[in-house]
Here is the input.
Amino acid sequence: MFAALLLALAPQTSVTRSELAQAYERFERVYFAAKLEPERKRELNRAYDEACLAYFGGEQRKLVDELERMSLALGAQPDAPPPEEKPYDWDGCRMTMLVTLSKLTVTSPAIEQALCARARAALLHTHPSPDKPTEFRVDRRALATALDREIGALERGDDPYSRATGDLWRVLRIPEGELPVRIYAPTQAAKDTPLPLVIALHGARGDENMFLEGYGCGRIRDLAEQHGFLLACPRSSGKLTPETIDALVRALGYDYAIDEKRIGLVGHSMGAALAARLASESPGRYCALACFSGGPREDAQELPPTWIRVGVIDQLADPAGMQAIAQKRKERGFAIDFQTLPDVGHTLIVGEELAGAIDWVLGHRRSE
Here is the structure.
């Protein structure tokens, strides 16, 4: 699994992304499994936020050490060593697949998108980089098996991703270049009935894996299956534009039936601010907006119905300032559901309250 906030950062000098991811996910497992008293929950949230602040300040090792300390305090057991793999020439496998894919031609817009299978093949390395999350955590054998099927379909001129269900990492072609996206398509996506689409935007310095691997041990996956919505988690540096999102939706539309009136945005921290900006810049495009530990600026114009949650003890956001903005927006007639929560901080709030955010988004439908 991948980590949540801060685990897909630029390469670090003292810890690798792999090491940080393992420490974070181990902590999340014991944290969300524990039945914590409010005081204990506040203590852990404060300690986690303080360690994150130290990390942003350059103390990378402090975050790993603090996550390990808190995990042990909650009763975590040492992780079992990974199973030993038989030696295999994954570099050769990668090159063979890339050569095959390079010979295929584009016959339709859907096939043009599908030919980004090249990026999936590029993940196969005999010695994966510990600082490339998608590469070092991928199940290479399962990916190679899937790629064999995908390449076979492309050689026949078929789109291998049409109505494909489950968890899938892809790279989509957009006008600005290529966009890595983590997709989860529930079992209902195999049919032609249009589904709601939730676009989830991660926090600062994160990546496309955050919502499906962190933020509550990836519980958004179960929510997508339970409620039957298509999930798209694009990688973002905060520079996504309305045109980028339109291209993303268009690309997904080649493979899935999407209910255009039920496209919603969910974001955490930087992703929350970005989601609010995208919604403001595209009035009428989205059915609803859900934000954690961040949200719209005071000068944001028209927004869809907006849900915001922030922790009272959040040390990275500004709960009082967010509340003031929300109150002013209410007074201007905007539909907004704002709450501060007493026992959670900046990041762990997502796993705690994610079900409520999804209920909010799915409970709205864009008008004509």
